Structure to design on (499 residues):
């Protein structure tokens, strides 16, 4: 009998699982860049950059399609079980969430194109910048937790999402104040607020990725567990 | 979804009736210790799969449930296996009568070199279960129907059973096994010699038979275990490592050895 190892007897199966994890990591990197670049373009009101980023989203969509194809083929050929099955199912979820975060970046670029060429006042966007940092941190942590299969880290990511939500509420109030002060601020502040909403939703997708990581490692649904914990 | 929900309900049912209760079962072939201290409860009218690498003891344990091991001189069984609360290894138990209650289907279809009719009627005849030709005709027809073979053989009951295709022969063996109206059906890799269509027919049949029988199936196909059973037991090196709801075993097993085996990490 062969010595038990952590690797599959069929090495090509092992290679495919490694490749799948690498594809998710690559897609995660592309999405993080898309969010950070789209916010940069927004704050600089850089229409050229925004248009380029809008076009570049197709690459992220292609990555998701490729992951879907790999997964369908693996299910058909390997009939995955237990942790492999969970990893493959989690990959579909994570790729889907990452694609949605890519769409959030695209929405932020559309907001940029709604603004005319005039510069934004830094006092308008300090809150948004802070929110971007938090969202990117959440995304990075969620992807790290996914790669490391760290269930404790996944819980931390889910619980930290409340910070982004709270920040969005305060951003809303702040921008509303500027709009009430001077109606000429309305266009800029509305578009910044909508961009803030996109970041808040990107944060929700980071939570979903953390939940998928938790499921991958434990086979349990973290959202349900946290809900029960908060109730008690 | 409905079928899955039903399976889950069966697996989770607190009120499930235990048909077979094994405690501290050890099986030796001479000096070789093939089964080591197996404790397991097998629920009534449920399909339980025994999985594990070759030589892990799953077939040996299956054979212990109807004392098939008695036919091997060097084989010794200790511990208790109770069927409906009665120890099947008790001196007063007649193994022949036991095997009428606990039927068996083997890996390779093994019909008797007799007609299709005689294959099915043989068991009821030797156990004196029927009176008269009409009753026997009815029992043979009923058994062949339950085995999903009636329509294919009703016009050639007098022809030899060995003339049927592999899948039909295996269904004939199932008809033969259920003709004595057993309570438990043991199946030792019943589909390993069959093509995918014949396998699908047998699996469909197992699902139907579950209504009336307690079924234990040894299989090397994890997908088959996942498809047909509500409970799964994993054996490794003679020990029962883990048993539980099939869905749980194949998505989130508790033991690392189970995990390694079902994901193809140990052979």
């Amino acid at each position: 009998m062969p010595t038990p190892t952590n690797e599959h007897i069929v090495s090509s199966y092992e290679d495919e699982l490694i490749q799948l994890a690498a594809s998710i990591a690559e897609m995660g990197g592309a999405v993080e860049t898309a969010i950070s670049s789209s916010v940069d373009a927004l704050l600089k009101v850089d229409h050229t950059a925004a248009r380029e980023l809008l076009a570049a989203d197709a690459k992220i969509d292609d990555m998701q399609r490729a992951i879907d194809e790999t997964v369908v083929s693996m299910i058909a050929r390997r009939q995955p079980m237990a942790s492999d099955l969970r990893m493959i199912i989690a990959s579909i979820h994570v790729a889907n969430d990452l694609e949605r975060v890519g769409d959030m970046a695209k929405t932020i670029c559309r907001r940029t194109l709604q603004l005319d060429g005039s510069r934004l006042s830094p006092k308008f966007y300090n809150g948004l910048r802070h929110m971007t940092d938090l969202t990117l941190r959440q995304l990075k942590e969620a992807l790290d937790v996914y790669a490391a299969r760290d269930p404790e880290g996944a819980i931390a990511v889910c619980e930290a999402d409340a910070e982004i939500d709270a920040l969005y509420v305060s951003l809303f109030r702040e921008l509303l104040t500027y709009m009430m002060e001077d109606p000429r601020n309305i266009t800029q502040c509305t578009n910044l607020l909508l961009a803030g909403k996109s970041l808040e939703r990107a944060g929700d997708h980071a939570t979903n990725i953390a939940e998928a990581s938790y499921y991958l490692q434990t086979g349990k649904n973290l959202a349900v567990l946290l809900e029960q914990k908060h109730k008690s | 979804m409905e079928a899955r929900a039903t399976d889950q309900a069966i697996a989770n049912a607190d009120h499930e009736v235990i048909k077979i209760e094994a405690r501290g079962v050890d099986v030796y072939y001479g000096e070789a210790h093939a089964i080591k201290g197996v404790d397991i409860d097998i629920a009534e009218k449920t399909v339980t799969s025994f999985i594990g690498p070759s030589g892990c003891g799953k077939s040996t344990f299956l054979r212990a449930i109807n004392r098939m091991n008695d036919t091997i001189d060097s084989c010794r069984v200790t511990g208790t296996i109770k069927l409906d609360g009665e120890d099947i290894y008790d001196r007063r138990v007649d193994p022949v009568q036991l095997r009428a209650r606990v039927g068996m289907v083997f890996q390779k279809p093994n019909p008797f070199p007799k007609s299709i009719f005689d294959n099915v009627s043989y068991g009821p005849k030797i156990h004196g279960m029927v009176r008269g030709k009409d009753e026997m005709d009815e029992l043979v027809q009923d058994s062949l129907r339950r085995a999903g073979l009636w329509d294919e053989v009703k016009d050639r009951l007098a022809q030899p059973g060995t003339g049927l295709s592999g899948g039909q022969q295996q269904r004939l063996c199932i008809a033969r096994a259920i003709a004595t109206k057993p309570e438990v059906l043991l199946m030792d890799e019943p589909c390993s010699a069959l093509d995918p269509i014949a396998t699908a027919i047998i699996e469909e049949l197992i699902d139907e038979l579950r209504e009336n029988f307690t079924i234990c199936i040894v299989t090397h196909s994890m997908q088959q275990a996942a498809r047909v059973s509500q409970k799964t037991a994993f054996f490794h090196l003679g020990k029962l490592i883990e048993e539980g709801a099939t869905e749980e075993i194949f998505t989130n097993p508790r033991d690392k050895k189970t995990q390694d085996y079902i994901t193809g990490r140990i052979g």
Q: What stands out?
A: Residues 11-43 of chain A form the longest helix (33 residues). Residues 124 and 174 of chain A are 8 Å apart (CA to CA). Chain A is about 85% helix and 0% strand.
